[in-house]
Amino acid sequence: MSKLDQEKQVPPQPKPTPNKEQPAHPDDFYQQVLSSFEKEAYTKEEIEANQHAWQHVESPERQAAQPPVIHDFPDYFFAGFWIRLFAFTIDLILIHSVTEMTIGSVYRLQGLAIGAHPFGLYQLVSLAIYLAYFVLLTKCNHGQTIGKMIFGIRVISFEDTQLSWQTVLIRELCGRYVLQFYWLFYLGYLPTIFSKRKQHAADYFADTSVVTINLIKAFNKQAQVQQDV
Asked: Is residue 224 in some structural domain?
């Protein structure tokens, strides 16, 4: 048998699967979070205090009698620019729908022209609906608008366990009014891409940011598994 015939009879070997296609093990994620704390020289008690605080972020109704302040999150727990943009887009669609069903319907029934004046009645009512949507939902729904609920993210404060009215009004009333009042101010959202804690301009003033709830749930669940072992 020739060498060429021998090579033809050798079955093809399957290509090895790249490691990047294999899902990360939960223990790897858990250890990754712990290592980020160890680099900052946190004690075991401080890590456990953070885990206890994160349970409130995961489920706000589980607030303890004396909850610790939630200052410390690994960088990758913060929601990035794109997921927040998608959530914001959902919110804008809902706000536009409410506006059209309320003041928009009145204008259409009366045959009134909306006009382009920035301080016309239609524009002022639209602005009030826009700001009220973010203020009321963020405060009353534990940091989540409908868009944030869909994408599993939540506004948190670095000073308070619960979002106070002062924090919400600074972020969602004053901050959003300035950021949307003139197109140039939309650049205030860009720091979300570059900042360590994914904060836009209003977040800096309110000392807030947005976290991904599923990452917190995954860590807390794995932490419970480690404690039970």
From this structure: no
Determine the Cα–Cα distance for residues 16 and 173; give it in Å rounded to an integer: 55
CA gyration radius for the chain?
25
Please tell me the distance from the alpha carbon of residue 89 to that of residue 97, in angstroms, as a whole number. 12
Looking at the DSSP bridge assignments, the partners of residue 156 are 209
C-alpha 17/C-alpha 189 separation (Å) is 40
List, for residues 14-58, the tens digit of each pLDDT value: 555 544 444 455 566 666 666 666 555 566 676 666 677 677 777
Running DSSP on this structure, what letter comes out for residue 201? H
Beta bridge partners of 155: 210
- How much is the pTM? 0.77
207 lies in a domain? yes
Q: Are 116 and 123 in contact (CB under 8 A)?
A: no
- Identity of residue 159: E
159 vs 136: which has the higher pLDDT: 136
What is the tally of structural domains in the chain? 1
Contact 171, 161 (CB under 8 A): no
Task: Find the domain containing 202 and state its range.
Answer: 75-219
DSSP 164: P
User: Is residue 191 included in any domain, yes or no?
Assistant: yes
Cβ contacts of residue 4 below 8 Å, gap of 6+?
Answer: none
Cβ atoms of 138 and 171 within 8 Å: the answer is yes
Mean pLDDT on 6-19: 53
Angle between helices 26-39 and 213-228 (to 10 degrees): 100
